[in-house]
Design a protein that fits this description.
Blueprint: E1 24-27, H1 31-42, E2 47-50, H2 54-61, E3 66-67, H3 71-75, E4 80-83, H4 88-97, H5 102-105, E5 111-114, H6 120-133, E6 136-139, E7 142-143, E8 158-161, H7 165-175, E9 181-184, H8 190-218, H9 223-232, H10 234-237, H11 245-250, H12 265-281, H13 287-301, H14 313-320, E10 322-324, E11 345-347
Parallel strand pairs: 1-2, 1-4, 2-3, 4-5, 5-6, 8-9
Antiparallel strand pairs: 7-8, 10-11
Amino acid sequence: MSQNINSLEMETPGDRALTTHPVLGIIGCGNIGGRQAANFLAHGYQVYVYDINPERMAEVQHLGAMITNSCAELAACCDIIFTALPTPADVITAVLEGTQNLREGLRPGSIYIDMTTNSPETVLRLYEAMEQLGVEMLDAPINDCPVGTHSQKGMALAVLASGPISTFERVKPILQLMADQVLYCGEIGCGTRCKLIHNAVNAVAVQAVSEGITLGLAQGIALSTIWDVLRYGSFGQSAGDIHGLPYYWFSRRCDDPSQHPAFTVKLLHKDLQLAVDMADQYNVPVPHISLTVKDYEQAQQQGWSDYATTKVRCLQEERANVIAKADLPVTPSHPNPAPLEDFYQQKL
């Protein structure tokens, strides 16, 4: 039966052990927070919620969640508190600066986890504030499961957690309920940085796909045909060669022209140039493809014409002054790949 907090007498976080059954709180009952609240309830957890929109709270109240009147009130009831809010400014208001904010209700021994796709600077500010309160903290943004992808658990693809490893291990069983993969990304803020990198790479790929599809349409190719070409080819199976990176790139096989690559820099440069010429012919702007052509031109100027196409990635390594090198297994395209926990970057 759903209840309001005012009808209950609750223990403080210090009175309960996380090893038994922690009480969970979620601030923000939108797309991520609302679904995770329902998920926790389905797994038998006691869940308190707060949202500035009463209708959103009502939706999870019907499932058994207990609504609260403020972030501070929620904090006083819970062992582990999550925020899932739209912007860094929203998080600062809810946690540090708003009326009856989370900080006002937190007690030593609580754990605070921010699921927001936040800014690294905001995460660090929150972490420093939690330290002063004796509250542990992780940032753990979520890679959601959009249409076209598959989650084995039906929730999300991955949780990208970072912060003290001891805190991570304590809450890992709960994080594992939230997504197919729980990745520990390192010190505080690294999970947020990884989420921003993922979203940026995906956004570039989205634009590149858009350029390819519009280029096909401009030439009278059926939309269903060009869509099939992209999704059934290597791009659809491993966008950006993501699953083959350990073989081609991280192993540094790309640095050895004696490997006799089947597809070389000069051959792909030819294909790219032909695509740009085709786009010019049909007056279709393709800015991302055009920029990529310039990278392949530079690679050939550096004497890499007969190297594997992956060698072009080394241009970006030079710009960033890093080397991507690791001994990692090659994993096929799969909805639940093994975590790449040992990936590292070695400074030049």
